[in-house]
Write a structure and sequence with these properties.
Elements lengths: L9 E3 L2 H7 L7 H24 L5 E3 L2 H6 L1 H9 L3 E3 L13 H19 L5 E2 L10 H7 L4 E2 L10 E5 L23 E7 L9 H4 L8 H11 L1
Parallel strand pairs: 1-2, 2-3, 4-5, 5-7
Antiparallel strand pairs: 6-7
Helix pairs in contact: 1-2, 2-4, 2-8
């Protein structure tokens, strides 16, 4: 029997949120304009592409995008695609306090539950940057899978929590940091690994890219 290879497609509808929380364009009307393009034309073009090839994907939609582009997000939902969590304004979880992380997760979880008629099952951390509290927070909200870590490149695995490692402090003796990483405990949270080499964004984000930045911005800003 031939071996089956399963592939999945994910779209991050960063749109304006990406420029607010991660790309440094929060003070630029031009960058915000690019986000508006992504949330309208970009989403619609991706929907047409998936429909052409009869593909169902998972769309990770920040709360900001959900509220800013309700018509386009409804088109995603009504086309039968899954919708997952992706922060509110594409905030970096590692820069946030535990309270801030919990507030964002609580709001966006409620938003998606109401919008989709069922709670979200999956999550992607903005910028694929997770925090030390991230796994426990997702588990507390019943999240079943994550797509933010890179322990593997294409095989799913159980996500661990409480890994610990020693940072280098050059003001101290070398013996203080020459210690191995200590692995934590496996959880029931499935990790669908993230890999920059399998993501179109790493290539297309460069202005020196062979791709034309404006013509592909609908894809760039809507994926990360």
């Amino acid at each position: 029997m031939p071996k089956r290879i399963l592939c999945s497609y994910g779209v991050d509808v960063d749109a304006v949120a990406g420029w607010l929380g991660s790309y440094g364009g929060q003070d630029s009307p031009s960058d915000i304009s690019r986000g508006l393009f992504a949330g309208t034309h970009g989403v619609r073009r991706m929907l047409k592409l998936f429909d052409k090839y009869n593909i169902k994907a998972t769309w990770f939609i920040p709360g900001h995008s959900l509220e800013t582009f309700p018509e386009e997000c409804a088109m995603v939902r009504d086309a039968g695609h899954e919708i997952g969590l992706h922060g509110y304004s594409h905030e970096n979880p590692s820069d946030m306090s535990l309270e801030q992380q919990r507030d964002v997760l609580d709001k966006t979880h409620k938003m998606l539950t109401e919008f989709c008629g069922k709670p979200p099952r999956g999550s992607v951390a903005p910028w694929w940057e997770t925090s030390k509290e991230g796994v426990d927070l997702m588990l507390s909200y019943g999240i079943e899978y994550d797509h933010s870590m890179s322990h593997d490149d294409c095989h799913m695995y159980w996500l661990r929590t409480n890994d610990t490692w020693t940072k280098i402090d050059y003001t101290q003796k070398a013996e203080t940091w020459m210690k191995p990483l200590i692995k934590g405990q496996d959880t029931g949270l499935v990790e669908i690994p993230a890999n920059w080499y399998l993501d179109e964004y790493d290539e297309s984000r460069s202005f020196d890219s062979k791709l034309v930045v404006h013509d592909t911005d609908w894809m760039i800003a809507s994926r990360r």
